[in-house]
Write a structure and sequence with these properties.
By secondary structure, the chain is of the alpha/beta class. The protein has 2 domains: 237 residues, TIM Barrel (Alpha-Beta Barrel), CATH 3.20.20; 58 residues, no CATH class. 44% of the residues lie in helices and 11% in strands. The protein is globular.
Length: 311
C-alpha cells in the first residue's frame, strides 16, 4: 500500500528507525537507491533501509560527482525515496555544502525531507569520488567543527563522519581524524577507499566500540567483500552506492542501441518490466482505490502477443 494516508505512515521518525536497525547485532545492509522506483524494488527484495549516493544522484542528472548540486536538489531525491518506500535513508551529504552554518542548514533540510542519517566528508571543494586520486583534505579541526555543527542542528538524525585520509595520511592519520570526529559528536565513522582486508581490520581494531560503515562500490579501490565479511572485520553498516544506477544505465544503453539498430523495441520486450509488473510495484490500483471516482484500470497485455523478431 502506498504511503498516502495517516494509517500507512511510520509512527517513528526515520532517524529513530535507522538507529533501531543499527542497534541490531547483524550488519545493516544499505543498497543504493537512486530514485523512487529503485527504492520500491529494494524494499520488495527485503531491505529495511537504503542509501542515497551523491554520485548516483549527479550521474542520473547527467552531471559529475564534483559537489555541484545543491541541498534542495538532494532534498528532492530524499523526499521521493522516503515517500515511495517508507524506509529510513542514509544520505550522502558530500562536504556539507559549505561551512558550519551551511552544514546546519543541510541537516535540518535533509531531516525535514525524511532522511534517517547523513554522512559528511573531510574533503575540500571541488570534492571527488573517494576512490579517485589526489583528493584535497580539509583541516581535521575544521571538519570536526562541521561535525559538531551537524550534531547541534539535528533532532534525531544520525551523523556519520567520513574520512578520506587513508590514501594520503595512512591508517594512523585516518584513525586520528576519526577519533576527533567522534569526540565532536559523530555517531559513526565511514573510512573511505580502504584497499585491503588488513586495512579494514586495522581501522576497526583502532576504534573499539565505534559504529563503522564500509563502502562496497564497484570499479573502485576496495576489493569485493560480502556483507558478512565486513561484519567479521568489525563493521556495522555496508553500502552499495551506485550499483542500481550502473545496472539501470547498462540496460538503457542496450535499449537505445536496439531501437537504433532494429527500428523499434520488438527485440527488447523480454528484457522489459511489463505494465502489470510496473503497476504492482508502484501500487497503481491501491492509488485508484483511494478515490472512488477512478474506474479501476484493466491491463491489456497486447504487446505479449507479438514475439521478438530474429535479427
Amino acid at each position: 500500500m502506498p504511503y498516502l494516508v495517516a494509517a500507512d505512515l511510520p509512527v517513528q521518525s526515520a532517524a529513530r528507525r535507522f538507529r533501531e536497525l543499527l542497534a541490531r547485532p547483524n550488519i545493516l545492509r544499505l543498497p543504493g537507491a537512486h530514485n523512487g522506483m529503485a527504492a520500491l524494488q529494494a524494499r520488495a527484495a527485503g531491505f529495511e533501509a537504503l542509501y542515497l549516493s551523491g554520485a548516483a544522484m549527479t550521474a542520473s542528472m547527467g552531471l559529475p560527482d564534483l559537489g555541484v548540486i545543491t541541498v534542495d536538489e538532494v532534498a528532492f531525491f530524499i523526499r521521493q525515496i522516503a515517500r515511495a518506500s517508507g524506509l529510513p535513508l542514509l544520505v550522502d551529504g558530500d562536504t556539507g555544502y559549505g561551512e558550519a552554518l551551511n552544514v546546519m542548514h543541510m541537516v535540518r533540510t535533509f531531516e525535514d525531507a525524511g532522511a534517517g542519517a547523513v554522512h559528511i566528508e573531510d574533503q575540500l571543494l571541488p570534492k571527488k569520488c573517494g576512490h579517485l586520486n589526489d583528493k584535497k583534505l580539509a583541516d581535521a579541526h575544521d571538519m570536526a567543527a562541521k561535525v559538531a555543527a551537524a550534531a547541534k542542528a539535528r533532532r534525531d538524525l544520525l551523523i556519520i563522519a567520513r574520512t578520506d585520509a587513508a590514501a594520503s595520511e595512512g591508517i594512523d592519520g585516518a584513525v586520528a581524524r576519526a577519533k576527533l570526529y567522534l569526540e565532536a559528536g559523530a555517531d559513526a565513522i565511514f573510512p573511505e577507499a580502504l584497499t585491503t582486508a588488513e586495512m579494514f581490520r586495522a581501522f576497526a581494531e583502532s576504534l573499539p566500540g565505534a559504529k563503522l560503515l564500509a563502502n562496497m562500490t564497484e570499479f573502485g579501490r576496495t576489493p569485493f567483500f560480502t556483507a558478512n565479511e565486513f561484519e567479521k572485520m568489525g563493521y556495522s553498516m555496508v553500502i552499495w552506492p551506485v550499483s542500481s544506477l550502473r545496472v539501470a544505465n547498462k540496460a538503457q544503453e542496450k535499449l537505445y542501441a536496439a531501437i537504433a539498430r532494429d527500428g523499434g523495441t520488438q527485440n527488447m520486450i523480454d528484457a522489459m518490466q511489463t505494465r502489470t509488473e510496473l503497476y504492482a510495484t508502484i501500487g497503481y490500483h491501491d492509488y485508484e482505490a483511494l478515490d472512488a471516482s477512478i474506474v479501476e484500470t484493466v491491463i491489456a497485455e497486447i504487446m505479449t502477443q507479438r514475439r521478438p523478431q530474429k535479427t
